[in-house]
Amino acid sequence: MDLNTITEVVRRPSDRPGVDWREGDAWLAGGTWLFSAEQPSLYRLIDLTALRWDPLVPSDAGLEIGATCTIRDLYAFALPSDWIAGTLFTKSCEAFLSSFKVWNSATVGGNICMSLPAGPMITLTVALEAKYELWAPDGSARVVDALDFVTGNNRNVLAPGEILRRIDIPGHALRKRTAHRRFTLTRLGRSTVFLIGTQTAGTSDLLLTVTAGTERPVRIAFDTMPDARTLHESIDAIPADVWFADPNGTPAHRRHLTKHFAEEIRRELMAGGDLA
Fold it and tell me: FAD-binding PCMH-type domain spans which residues (predicted)?
């Protein structure tokens, strides 16, 4: 879509692009959402791809993902063999409500900053205990837990002119065993619920991440594997106003699905293999 209010595109921003931020600006990375709808309040686009941030940087500490990393690059990335949680990268990319062609432009950071309940990059990074580095217009930086970034449907903690620079996933999370469940009304539809369970090798702990069915991510931690009743009670404890409602499901429907799939995840991780 043509954005007929745009009067300027900054093709070569400074290394700290927020320094010159002003009202009416928008960050441009993949642009897959930006150009999909009218944007009458925008007057200037700042092209982040010109900064050429490294898309994926593995190290002993874990994996650094540049905010402008495309979904295509994330999907194609060959993770070290001991990062067994890497299967979640593929599954999360495939959870996009988009064609593979969109993957060539859509970015990890863009999906996170849209902060929609069904954002699969949010699911992935929250489940893998990531931290986000945010850059402010004054040149300062802060780090927030992925769990705390999204505050509601299309809402997050970013201040005006603040930008998501990178996502850091710790190595210990990448070495965890995982199980996931996702439900959609149609085969290629938007996620109604998307759950991921992770477990530290050699332990019986459980970290359950609930997304898509809730307006913001919810993470429930157990030091030892809970029984079915305890798990269900923990899901019932999620506040009523956190559950999401849209044409893909009512809050009651999403709570029911979450309980069902959480139990499947619990049993799968207890059994040490896939039940399917």
Answer: 1-174
